[in-house]
Design goal:
The complex is a heterodimer of chains A (about 425) and B (about 130). Chain A is α+β, with helices and mostly antiparallel strands. In chain A, about 15% of the residues lie in helices and about 45% in strands. In chain A, the strands form 7 sheets. Chain A has a 5-stranded antiparallel sheet with strand order 1-28-27-26-25, with no helix packed on it. In chain A, strands 8, 9, 10, 11 and 12 form a 5-stranded antiparallel sheet that branches. At the A-B interface, helix 4 of A face helix 3 and helix 4 of B.
Chain lengths: ~425, ~130
């Protein structure tokens, strides 16, 4: 399709949608300022979980790796936790074991299983003169990726840098270990809950960035582009692994969707694009650029409707573009040229599922969000209602959207240089 | 003739796309009051970075100074963040006493650096004289 025809269609669709949504059904009832302090600045919101009584909010910021908890009604900061170096030692001293690694030497791929975690204190003794303790600590960048309320406490999925050595000993390596940490509801009394990596069929799990717990099973998203580079096998990139309540691996629940695999998009993205949510009735998952939501427990999917654009037909063109360019090393603005529609968030709303998606436009070599769409689907896949949300208003630029099911409010989080963070408590009719 | 002209235009256009954003560079230059004989040392930073991502480029600055690559220069950190409050977090984290500006995530591109670049050094006219990835 020619670029002018494409642009014209997009503009007409946007115009149509803005007319049909000209009477906004999202009413702001109150603005709540989210408290920040001199020693605590919230840079980014990756995820917000609401407590079962609806009175507390748990924020994840994967940029700084800090967990913070706020009072829902006042926005007052209740407590926070930084991802300290201690976490590395907690993992090293736990039952967690380093995963096997694959190394390419010439044409051979050598598997190594002889790794052992060591604590930071141990390191000073083992490797004197080669790398000192301070330098080693500089390499550590621990991050609480995402935290959720669970069983009257809090559980957090973290990427932890842990020193490891091999036998025979060469030098100290750093592995990113994905582990769960459990806390009480004041984010104290930390306990590590390691995932087991011993099963031979289990893929390495270098980074994980999302999870949900469904009927005592842990569903963890995984990303390991390195594995694909070694094996050149598309099926070597699993994206959702399941563990039991003891952290034992059960199975791979999902691989890349066909379109991601076929177009190579799955191997271009450096972030894990799997979206995952649960409301204890089912597990909902989707991917940034597809047009459906999977109900993983009951094994069916629903298609998105009423959006101004469908990416599906453009995956082939993306593939051809990469082939013509002779490289799969492409940037996000190039992806958005072909795939302008992106699902940002899945939000369970009273046994239905809301979908927040964006339409991205590309100008020169940059992309920006031109529109946010919020849609509500029932479990039969019918579109119940939809609306658009402004990118920016007096409270700043839109950063995150979720729903407080207990209070029946749609929550829109915005950030501005002047005001800081504001939570718009809204009624969505 | 026409085809040749279009071809030259296309080359000029693509050169423009992959070159330094002069307006942006001039803004930086004027904000730090860069003198003609001085170099501009730019650190590309994120608040969530590990200490290593700060220490390595700073060590490199010391090395370049020692080697004589850097003589008179202004040091500037471009920190990816949205607010001044976030910029202050960086200032405190590293006890930063030099120039620093917010980067909306496009700093690399505007200064014609790869996304993986930690450190770039420019002369007064914006010519890149050193880069560290």
């Amino acid at each position: 399709m020619k670029i002018f025809e494409f642009s014209a269609i997009v503009i007409i669709m946007i115009f149509f949608i803005s007319i049909t949504n000209s009477f906004s059904k999202i009413y702001i009832e109150k603005n709540v300022l989210i408290e920040e302090k001199e020693e605590f600045i919230l840079q980014n919101i990756t995820y917000v979980d609401i407590s079962t009584d609806g009175n507390k909010m748990l924020f994840s910021d994967s940029q700084t790796g800090v967990i913070s908890q706020f009072d829902y009604n006042s926005g007052v900061l209740l407590n926070k936790l930084n991802p300290s170096l201690v976490l590395s030692d907690l993992v090293a001293q736990s039952k967690a074991k380093p995963f096997k690694t694959m190394e390419q030497k010439g044409t051979k791929i050598i598997e190594r299983t002889d790794w052992k975690f060591i604590s930071l204190l141990e390191e000073g003794k083992i490797n004197p003169g080669k790398i000192n303790e301070e330098t080693l600590k500089d390499l550590i960048n621990n991050i609480y990726c995402i935290s959720k309320y669970y069983n009257n406490g809090i559980i957090s999925l973290a990427n932890i840098n842990v020193p490891k050595i091999s036998n025979p000993f060469d030098f100290v390596h750093i592995q990113t270990a994905t582990e769960f940490f459990k806390f009480d509801n004041k984010i104290q009394h930390i306990k590590v809950f390691p995932l087991q990596q011993e099963n031979k069929d289990v893929p390495p799990l270098p980074t994980a960035n999302n999870f949900c717990i469904f009927h005592n099973y842990y569903y963890v998203t995984t990303l390991d582009a390195g594995r694909y580079l070694l094996f050149k096998k598309n099926d070597s990139l699993p994206i959702l692994a399941v563990y039991d309540k003891n952290g034992n691996f059960i199975k791979i629940k999902r691989y890349l969707p066909y379109l991601y695999d076929f177009s190579n998009l799955g191997y271009l993205l450096t972030d894990n694009s799997l979206l995952l949510e649960t409301d204890n009735e089912d597990i909902y998952s989707s991917f940034w650029f597809v047009d459906y939501i999977d109900f993983l427990n009951k094994s069916y999917k629903i298609r998105l409707k009423g959006l101004p654009y469908a990416n599906k037909s453009m995956f082939n063109k993306l593939k051809l573009y990469c082939e013509k360019k002779g490289s799969f090393d492409i940037e996000y603005y190039e992806i958005h040229k072909f795939l302008p529609l992106m699902i940002k968030n899945l939000i369970p709303v009273h046994k239905q599922i809301a979908v927040l998606s964006t339409l991205n436009e590309v100008k020169k070599q940059e992309y920006f969000i031109s529109k946010y769409f919020l849609q509500l689907y029932n479990k039969s896949g019918e579109l119940v209602k939809q609306d658009t949300i402004s990118n920016i208003n007096n409270n700043g630029a839109l950063q995150y959207v979720t729903y407080n099911n207990k209070k029946n409010k749609l929550l829109i989080f915005r950030k501005s240089n002047e005001k800081g963070w504001t939570m718009e408590v809204t009624k969505w009719e | 003739m026409g085809i040749r002209f279009c071809f030259i235009l296309m080359i000029l256009f693509s050169l423009k796309l992959y070159s330094l954003d002069e307006t942006y560079y001039n803004q930086l230059r004027s904000k730090v009051n860069l003198q003609k004989e001085e170099q501009l040392v730019v650190l590309f930073q994120n608040i969530g970075n590990c200490s290593r991502c700060y220490i390595l480029p700073m060590e490199q600055v010391t090395k370049l100074k020692r080697e004589g690559t850097l003589n008179k220069f202004k040091l500037l950190a471009l920190v990816v963040c949205d607010r001044d409050a976030e910029l202050n977090v960086y200032k405190k984290q590293h006890d930063w006493k030099y120039y620093m500006f917010r980067d909306d995530g496009k700093g690399h591109k505007r200064l014609n650096a790869k996304e993986t670049t930690f450190l770039s050094v420019f002369d007064y006219n914006g010519k890149k004289i050193y880069e560290m990835e």
